[in-house]
Amino acid sequence: MARTQLSGRQKAAILLISLGTETSAEVFKHLKEEEIEQLTLEIANVRKVNNVEKENIMNEFHQICVAQDYISQGGIGYAKDILEKALGHQKAVDILHRLTSTLQVRPFDFARKAEPAQILNFIHNENSQTIALVLSHLDYEKASVILSSLPQEKQADIARRIATMQSTTPEVIRQVERILEQKLSATVSEDYTSSGGIDVIVQILNGVDRATERTILESMEIQDPNLSEEIKKRMFVFEDIVNLDNRSIQRIIRDLDNHDLQLSLKVSSEEVRDVIFKNMSSRMVETYKEEMEFMGPVRLRDVEEAQTRIVSVIRRLEETGDIIISRGIGDDIIV
């Protein structure tokens, strides 16, 4: 007899058992370590699955896959129309609810599928808050292109709004969606809220060209100096050193405090350490390794402060033109 109520994780475990070991192994390759652990435990707890239960779960999985395919073709509204015609209103709503609850189909799906130029044409006449809301939902590369293409007088205001954006209720999101895209259904998960924040605008600014970044930050510095400084701190992190060219790294090393660099390298990734040591003389590398070994345990706060000082040196060298930090759009053009 089928169990009366199964959790999503239990259904996933039964589905994987039904699919077989080879297919399940392929699925595991796309999961996070925590998800694999949870599913493995759930699979281990499954003792017996009857045919009715297995068939119901397989059917449910198939329905969700079909719905997801419809969404990818034409959005949630399109999927809802097709499913309603095939299965009826209530069944369609149930499937889409499960899909949006488990897969978190995000707002502004239509914008994420469009080209940056199309989105720009779509939103450029909207107010800054609306543009900020849309950009905060796009992938960072696409948002960077659009932000760079907006009028300069708007860029800093929009960047500031993204950085200071708080959670947005589903009602507000749906209202904006209805204005911008009539096809989009109002079936977005009620649990979903939108937030911009400093991390979001930092990722976007990391993708714009240097001139756009400078214009935005200089304007923002006048409007909100504290926010501007906080964004600047996060624009380049210590681990980003691996993305610099060898000449720049060698130039940076000359200006760094040895103790700060040794402190940072002591707890850095192997990749960062290799890049730094590759740009030192063998004698200097040997000295660094010895002094790092004698350093003993270090406090995380001390390491973070040392890395902040290093990042400040890197940003200063970039501002003076001694090094170039690639930022995407237009930065690989040499004039």
TrEMBL record:
Gene: fliG
Source organism of the structure: Chengkuizengella axinellae
Protein keywords: Bacterial flagellum, Cell membrane, Cell projection, Chemotaxis, Cilium, Coiled coil, Flagellar rotation, Flagellum, Membrane
Domain Flagellar motor switch protein FliG middle, chain residue ranges per copy: 116-190
Assigned protein family: Belongs to the FliG family.
Domain Flagellar motor switch protein FliG N-terminal: 5-108
Domain Flagellar motor switch protein FliG C-terminal: residue ranges: 218-325
Subcellular location: Bacterial flagellum basal body; Cell membrane
Residues spanning the signal sequence: none
Coiled-coil features, chain-numbered ranges: 29-56
Protein name, as recorded: Flagellar motor switch protein FliG
Bilayer disposition of the protein: Peripheral membrane protein
